[in-house]
Amino acid sequence: MAATPTARGRIDKRQAILDGAFAVFARKGYTDACVQDIATEAGVAKPTVYNHFADKAALFRSALEATAQAKLAERVAAMEPLYDPGDDLPGTLENVGHQLLRAHGDSTSCALRRLLYAEVTRFPEALDLVSASGPHRVVHALTDPLGRLTLAGRLNARDPARAAEHLMALLNGPMEARSRMGTRTVADEELREVATAAVATFVLAYGPAT
Description:
- The protein starts with a helix and ends with a helix.
- Helix 4 crosses helix 6 (107-119) and helix 5 (89-105) packs across helix 11.
- The protein is built from 11 helices and no strands.
- It is mostly helical.
- The model has no long low-confidence stretch (mean pLDDT 92).
- It is 74% helix and 0% strand.
- The radius of gyration is 20 Å and the shape is elongated.
């Protein structure tokens, strides 16, 4: 059943508040952000924020969780080509790896990691909220297509979950240093080079026996 206009409007306002909250928290940090800033960023009245969230702390937790879920959905969508990779499996892996690196290194993902590192002692539960949509879920999502490719004889990954973990480590491992912990924008050409090197190593380890 489709949402009524009233329900649709409430959902849209909630999303606008979450987006605005994340933008303000990313820009100012938790302590310096205020609910009025968030309301202004979201284009709603301050009481509207409190209609959806009890206080700033609840809004912070929800904003981190919603952002992590959105980034997870983006990463999972990037893996879709692996279900039908065509004749050039390494090329498809490189393209998927490139898209995963772009998602990992964009401004939203970097801001999410910085906020988590900065506030994890104040909000220890935030680590669980973000992790529920974080690296482990990405590895879990990647396990399925790698397992299917192994069954099809195109990879030799006896443990697809371990193979997925290794591929993500090869992709993301160099990025903290290259991006200077998210403070430097890594050029797209450099992301492509990292993806190419990661896939070359992955195929050496998990390519089918010849």
